[in-house]
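Weekly modeling sync, notes
Attendees: S.R. (lead), two postdocs, one rotation student

Agenda item 3: backlog of single-chain predictions. S.R. asked that every request posted to the team notebook include the full sequence so nobody has to chase files. The rotation student volunteered to paste the first one in as an example of the format we agreed on. Action items at the bottom.

Example entry:
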Amino acid sequence: RSGAVLEADAAQLDALANDPEAETLSGDKPVYSTMATTTVATGSDQAWAGIEGLTGYTGRGIGVAIIDSGLTHHTALSGKVIAAVDFTQPGGPGLDHFGHGTHLAGIVAGASPDASFRGMAPGASIYALPLNIAGPIIGDSYFQEGAARTNAFISNNSWGYGGARSYNLSAASWDAAVRDALPGMTGSQSL
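Predicted structure, as returned to the notebook:
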């Protein structure tokens, strides 16, 4: 299989459409950001503006732990990263070599300098907690405790357990453990 990008007039396009060797044709449609649609669909635009007499809210004062592939320095995240604890290399910078952690942080708290893009909670702060997705594998308790020590109110995990494709006992254990992960402290720990 191969493909090509072509410019064609109506007659050429008709001939190409009738060519049995051409399996599929598609137009070159403009691509647009859909973040504005996302903010409306999730209601974040209402949270920012304030509804029913409530003051608008952007996530200011809320810390979000992003446990993923790391974080790359990006203008949309400028001033938002409070700490980076590098699980991949002790004392390392926690740089994102895959882009996924940076993408997640942008969705959560990004804000472009020209205001053309805002994440769901552009006032939130980010705690970057990169894990080494290439190995070696370490237990999830290490990440649970790391997230708890940041004092983040929210912990985002976009990784999974090998072979698990549903919300199961391991996932439920993670949810409870992030809340109560500090060793030596009994009972539910305060947020």
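Discussion: group reviewed the output briefly. Residues 169-179 form the longest helix (11 residues).
Action items: rotation student to repeat for the remaining queue; S.R. to check formatting next week.
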